[in-house]
Structures are given as structure tokens and as C-alpha cells.
């Protein structure tokens, strides 16, 4: 990797519409059932498509169900105490109907995941090199000996300096950014067609975040891997995702191509989020417009709009009827009273 | 508030009414110890290594930098929560670094702190009333809770919480509300300076704005001076009047918030600014990023000369590796004289005489101490110390 690079002027645009979606999530619901407690529906009917080579963002604040969605897609939620329904079709196969064994074959090979905290997702007592070759041995049937140079190249590919030496290093010997790179190397080992990244840069400093985002962008461009980016950071989404889904209270409230969504956010929540973030390029002295209240004020979606108590422009129907996710000016939107002005 | 007559005043600083806090040559070095029976000091983590800064009365000074740059340690050193290894902190004409015991305790009434994580900085077994009253009692502002009650209600109102909150406990509040309690506690003793260490980074973005606005309102209402320590450049730029950028224990650039954004001069500030994502696809698409290679070098073994030279895309053959640059006003036309930069080549970089070049990444270890062939125990304790 070169030290200085300019961000590409042409952004990899997803081939939306034309090709078959690689991943198609329909009406995904996840309910947590705990003894002695009311069941809690964390994800309440989420549907979206991901096409090959496309980067799709799932954005929302803590508790909006974005991470649970990704875990459900990967089949990583423990069966006990959780109920998952809906369909997650990957290349025509419904992942939710697969057995644990079949799912294990898919995970890591066809679909890979990068988590937020690399230190807790890497095994602390196994050298980095072995953690990469392990995947190659398991899914591609390579011998340890044959896998080692491949692992070395993978580490090199994700920009880890001195990869030969790093093969024998343990996770604690790497810095945070290097660990995240190692995790990406493991995820890429079998050239997955779908990569799910759950807050991959949240634990990192901005300059390191910039490196990792540039790496992900490059990978999508070079390999045509589809990327699902889960984040709370609208800035990350703005630069990386072709399509953005905004989640609130376990449901998608707005979806759109990034330029359209950021230029004309129609949902008061999206609009409010953008108005509440201090921007580096905003004129100083401008006051932020926060979204009042907190997620604790949410109404149940069943018979209202969950966001209504915090909304800047609620109307009477908002507290009575749940809005559906229906096209509004060509973009899916879940709102009774959309924001009309542009930002 | 009774002024201590015994406290040493530092000559020459007292008349300067404009400056509330002046830090001179602050150094905080943490010893790295090894040995089971004998605690042998085998090296130091140079968390803060020679920082001078002045905070004016009524302004907000923002300290930014990445993790491990020493910004939090510097904030704590100013309160003497972390005794500085060297240097002095002159607060309102009095050198805090020399204060001890009771005098120091009394002085702390003027300097309060707001922490990042309100859940761990508020005692879970204390009601809000008791949390807020504790400081007032310690500083003799109120004798009993009954007497303090009107003041407590006033405080809660100032931070936007209802009176009913007094009887509740920290776990009954949301993150944003807890941070409001933390702010109310800091305000309870009528401080002059509030040091806020990452005050909003644990909060969701929609709630972040509420707390930022609150901090701004309170500053206006009570004439407070803030030292805000944060890693989020956008947040710091939003609330600060002046900003200091830290890298490996030292200030590399200091400027008015607007100047820093309009024309960052130090190579590190330029890279940092260019790395912050902006929630606007149009800007993101045409933004020129300066990607730095590698990671922050270990503060226990900082690079010689300019500490940024190992990652600097503008590094030169001479000076950078051997001479440590001092914070100075650059000789560039049109630059505000309040902007100071610690770079040998600022002028040449600004004029385009020196161009950016590629840097090869060198491997840095997490907690790499390089003090001997055998590795040391517990890098975790070092990161904790930072």
C-alpha cells in the first residue's frame, strides 16, 4: 500500500435492479425470549437486497437492531431464547432453513463477517498466521504447508507490514488497526462473495479508520464482493455505501441511494440525525438541533410510529397507526408526514 | 470562598487577568516497573512530554488527538489528579503543582471534571440528591441536604432534569441524562474551570447534540471556562474557541478553531482533518485524503527529533530526524499570529516547495517497549496508564 492516495473520483456504483440479488432478506424478525420477561422483538420485519459488488449500509443508533440483523443473517444467534423468522436467501438458498453443519460450511467460505472489536474476535492464544490458515484448511482443503504462503499474501494484501514476521505473532502483539486488518484477512481468505462488516472502524482512531475504509473500498472495487456495512456513523456511510437503510426501533424507516438520501432525507429521524451531528465543514457558531428524548420514549410499532414522541412534526395519525414502508417519490419511506424541504 | 494566604503565588502571572490557566512545560512520565521482589524501573511512558498552554477566562479550549497521544493525561495533570513529573500549572495566579493536602482540596472547588462514562463515574448506590450534595458539603457550601435543596433543584433545572430526579439512582436514567447529572455535579460547587474528558463520546449521536448544546448554554449562563478533551474533531471544532492538536505527548499545532479548519498547517493536523468522514456524499466523493501509514509509535520509546517523522508524508532528510521542533508562529503571509505550529518545514510545505511523498509503513507493536530483547509483562497496564 502506498502511504498517500487520493480517494477515487468515481465511486463503485452498485448494479442495482439489473442483476439478481446475491442476498435477499425478507421480513426478518428476531424475538428475544427471556424467562419471566415479556418477549422483546429486536428486529421487526426487515427486508433488503444486496447485489454483487454493491455496498449496502445499515445505519442506526444503539438498540435499533442493526447488529442483531447481521447476526441473524449469519446464523450466529444462539437458538435458545431467540426466535428468528422470515427468509434470508443467499444465492437462492434460504439460510434460515440450513442445519448448523450446512451453515458452518457457508460461513467463512461464502459469507464472512468482520466484527467491531478485533481483540475479542481473534483467538488470543493462537498466532495470527494459524488463524488465517485455519480457514483455508477448513474450507479450501489446503494443507498447512500450502496455506501458509497464501496466508502471508493475504496479510500483505490487507496492508500489514512485514507479513512473514507477523504470521507467528499473537493478537496482543498487534496494534488495534493491524488486528482489524488481520480480521479482514481472515474474512477474505476464501474469497467470500458477501462480507458483513459490523462497526469495523468504531474502535479505531480516525486516521486508522481512514486506512481501513480505503481498504474495504478497494476490496469491493477489485473483487466485486458485496458488502453490508453496519454502522452508526453517517459520515462513514456517506463515503462508502451505494445504498443506505436507516433503522429505527427494529424497522427500516427509510432507504435510498446515498446521494438522494443525504440530499433529501424524507424521514424526520434521518433528517434529525443529520441536523444533530456537528460537522467539520459547518460554519462555526451554528447551533445543533438535537432530537429530543431518547429511545426509551419509543411507542410500540404495532399501533403507532415508534418515533412519534421524538418527532419534529408528528400528526394525529402517528400515534394511532403504524406507517408502512412504501415508496415515496420513488424511495421506500415509513412515515405519515414526510419532511418536504431539502437540506 | 476564602483565598489561601499561604499558597505560593507565582510572580509575573497574577496580573494577567485574561489567562485563567497556564501550563508550563508539563511532563507526565509513568514509570514502567518490572520485578517480583524488587520494583526496578526499566523505562518510562512519556505520556505528556513538555506542553505549554494557556486557557483564557471564558473560552473553550479543545484538546484533540488520537488514543495514546496524552490528551487525557494532560487534562488530569492540570487538575493534579495526575501529579506532573515536571512543570507547573498556574491557575488564577497560583501554582497548583506545588499545592498539597488541604490546600489542594480547597482549590479543587474551582476546577471540576466531567468524565466520559457517567455510569462508572457516578456511585450507583448514591441517590442523585446525595451525589450532588456531597461536593457542596465537602466545600462548605451547604451544611445539610435540607438547606441545599433549593440549590439542587436549581442545578437540575439548569441541566434540564425534573426535581423528581433527586430521589432516583443513576441506573434509572438514560446515558444522556446520566451525563447531565455528571455535569450538574461538576457545577454544584461553582467552579471556574470544567475539564470535560470525552463528555459526549459514549452517547448516541441524537443525544450527543443535546449535551453539546447544554454545555454551551451553561458556559454562557455561568461564565465557565472549559477544557474539552476529545478525539472527535468535529465535536471539538464545534464547541471550542481554540484547539490544540496533540501527537505523542506534545502539542503539534494550536490555533483558533476556524483557522485550524480553514488552514491546518502541521502535516499531522492535515492528515487528521482529511480523515474525518463528513456526512455528505458530495464532499466525500471529491475529498482528497492524506492516508497515514502505520500506527502511533510507542510513547515509551518515542522517535527522535520530530515525533511525527516516522509517518510524515512531508518528511525531509535534514532536521526532522534529529531536531525536535518547537511550537512557533509560522512565517506565512495571512496566517493569524495565534496559530502556532511545531514543524521545521511549515513555510515550505505551505508554499508547495516541499511536496508530499510516499512513506513505507514500519511495523509497530502494540505496547512495544523496545527496552530489551525479552518482552515485558502486561501491555494492558501501560495502555491503562495512558
Automatic annotation (TrEMBL), chain B:
CDD domains: ABC_NikE_OppD_transporters
Region (Disordered): 363-386
InterPro entries: AAA+_ATPase, ABC_transp_ATP-bind, ABC_transporter-like_ATP-bd, ABC_transporter-like_CS, Oligopep_ABC_C, P-loop_NTPase
Superkingdom: Bacteria
Domain ABC transporter as annotated: residue spans: 32-273
GO MF annotations in UniProt: ATP binding; ATP hydrolysis activity
PANTHER family (alphabetical): D,D-DIPEPTIDE TRANSPORT ATP-BINDING PROTEIN DDPF-RELATED (PTHR43776:SF7), TRANSPORT ATP-BINDING PROTEIN (PTHR43776)
Protein family per UniProt: Belongs to the ABC transporter superfamily.
This protein's name: Peptide ABC transporter ATPase
Species for this entry: Knoellia aerolata DSM 18566
Native organism taxonomy: Bacteria, Bacillati, Actinomycetota, Actinomycetes, Micrococcales
Amino acid at each position: 500500500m502506498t502511504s498517500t492516495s487520493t480517494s477515487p473520483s468515481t465511486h463503485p456504483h452498485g448494479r442495482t435492479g439489473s442483476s439478481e440479488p446475491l442476498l435477499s432478506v425478507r421480513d426478518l424478525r428476531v424475538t428475544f425470549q427471556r424467562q419471566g420477561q415479556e418477549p422483546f422483538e429486536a428486529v421487526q420485519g426487515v427486508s433488503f437486497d444486496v447485489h454483487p459488488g454493491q455496498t449496502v449500509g445499515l445505519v442506526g443508533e444503539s438498540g435499533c437492531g442493526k447488529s442483531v440483523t447481521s447476526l441473524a443473517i449469519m446464523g450466529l444467534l444462539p437458538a435458545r431464547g431467540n426466535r428468528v423468522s422470515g427468509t434470508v436467501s443467499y444465492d437462492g438458498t434460504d439460510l434460515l432453513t440450513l442445519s448448523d453443519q450446512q451453515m458452518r460450511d457457508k460461513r467463512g467460505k461464502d459469507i464472512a463477517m468482520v466484527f467491531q472489536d478485533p481483540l475479542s474476535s481473534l483467538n488470543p492464544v493462537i498466532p495470527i498466521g494459524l488463524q488465517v490458515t485455519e480457514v483455508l484448511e477448513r474450507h479450501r482443503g489446503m494443507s498447512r504447508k500450502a496455506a501458509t504462503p497464501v496466508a502471508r499474501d493475504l496479510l500483505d494484501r490487507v496492508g500489514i507490514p512485514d507479513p512473514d514476521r507477523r504470521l507467528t505473532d499473537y493478537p496482543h502483539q498487534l496494534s488495534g488497526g493491524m488486528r482489524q486488518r488481520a480480521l479482514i484477512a481472515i474474512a477474505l481468505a476464501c474469497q467470500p462473495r458477501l462480507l458483513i462488516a459490523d462497526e469495523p472502524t468504531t474502535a479505531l482512531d480516525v486516521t486508522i479508520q481512514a486506512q481501513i475504509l480505503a481498504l474495504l473500498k478497494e476490496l469491493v472495487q477489485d473483487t466485486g464482493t458485496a458488502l453490508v456495512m453496519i454502522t452508526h456513523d453517517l459520515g462513514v456511510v456517506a463515503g462508502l455505501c451505494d445504498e443506505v437503510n436507516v433503522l429505527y426501533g427494529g424497522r427500516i424507516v427509510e432507504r435510498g441511494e446515498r446521494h438522494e438520501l443525504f440530499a433529501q432525507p424524507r424521514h424526520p429521524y434521518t433528517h434529525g440525525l443529520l441536523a444533530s451531528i456537528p460537522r467539520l465543514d459547518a460554519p462555526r457558531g451554528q447551533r445543533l438541533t438535537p432530537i429530543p428524548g431518547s429511545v426509551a420514549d419509543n411507542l410500540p410499532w404495532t399501533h403507532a410510529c415508534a418515533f412519534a414522541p421524538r418527532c419534529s412534526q408528528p400528526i394525529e395519525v402517528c400515534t394511532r397507526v403504524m406507517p408502512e414502508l412504501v415508496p415515496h417519490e420513488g424511495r421506500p419511506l415509513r412515515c405519515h408526514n414526510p419532511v418536504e424541504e431539502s437540506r | 470562598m476564602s483565598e489561601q494566604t499561604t499558597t505560593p503565588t507565582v510572580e509575573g502571572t497574577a496580573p494577567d487577568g485574561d489567562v485563567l490557566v497556564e501550563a508550563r512545560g508539563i511532563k507526565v512520565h509513568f514509570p514502567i516497573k518490572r520485578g517480583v521482589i524488587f520494583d526496578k524501573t526499566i523505562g518510562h511512558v512519556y505520556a505528556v512530554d513538555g506542553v505549554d498552554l494557556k486557557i483564557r477566562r471564558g473560552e473553550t479550549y479543545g484538546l484533540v488527538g488520537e488514543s495514546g497521544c496524552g490528551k487525557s493525561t494532560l487534562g488530569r495533570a492540570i487538575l493534579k489528579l495526575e501529579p506532573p513529573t515536571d512543570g507547573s500549572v498556574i491557575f488564577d495566579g497560583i501554582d497548583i503543582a506545588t499545592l498539597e493536602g488541604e490546600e489542594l482540596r480547597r482549590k479543587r472547588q474551582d476546577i471540576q471534571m466531567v468524565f466520559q462514562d457517567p455510569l462508572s463515574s457516578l456511585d450507583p448506590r448514591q441517590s442523585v440528591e446525595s451525589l450532588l450534595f456531597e461536593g457542596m458539603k465537602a466545600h462548605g457550601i451547604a451544611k445539610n441536604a435540607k438547606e441545599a435543596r433549593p440549590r439542587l433543584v436549581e442545578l437540575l433545572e439548569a441541566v434540564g432534569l425534573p426535581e423528581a430526579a433527586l430521589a432516583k439512582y443513576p441506573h434509572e436514567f438514560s446515558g444522556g441524562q446520566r451525563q447531565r447529572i455528571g455535569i450538574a455535579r461538576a457545577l454544584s460547587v461553582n467552579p471556574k474551570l470544567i475539564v470535560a474528558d470525552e463528555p459526549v463520546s459514549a452517547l448516541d449521536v441524537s443525544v450527543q447534540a443535546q449535551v453539546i448544546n447544554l454545555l454551551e448554554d451553561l458556559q454562557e449562563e455561568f461564565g465557565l471556562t472549559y477544557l474539552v478533551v476529545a478525539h472527535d474533531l468535529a465535536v471539538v471544532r464545534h464547541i471550542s474557541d481554540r484547539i490544540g492538536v496533540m501527537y505523542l505527548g506534545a502539542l503539534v499545532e494550536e490555533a483558533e478553531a476556524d483557522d485550524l479548519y480553514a488552514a491546518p498547517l502541521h502535516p499531522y493536523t492535515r492528515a487528521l482533518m482529511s480523515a474525518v468522514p463528513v456526512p455528505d456524499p458530495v464532499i466525500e466523493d471529491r475529498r482528497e485524503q492524506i492516508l497515514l501509514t502505520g500506527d502511533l509509535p510507542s510513547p515509551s520509546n518515542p522517535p527522535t527529533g520530530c515525533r511525527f517523522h516516522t509517518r510524515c508524508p512531508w518528511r525531509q532528510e535534514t532536521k526532522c530526524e534529529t531536531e525536535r521542533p518547537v511550537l512557533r508562529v509560522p512565517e506565512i503571509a495571512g496566517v493569524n499570529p495565534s496559530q502556532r505550529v511545531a514543524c521545521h518545514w511549515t513555510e515550505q510545505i505551505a508554499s508547495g516547495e516541499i511536496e508530499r511523498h510516499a512513506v513505507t509503513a514500519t511495523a509497530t507493536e502494540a505496547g512495544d517497549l523496545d527496552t530489551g530483547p525479552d518482552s515485558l509483562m502486561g501491555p494492558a497496564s501501560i495502555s491503562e496508564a495512558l
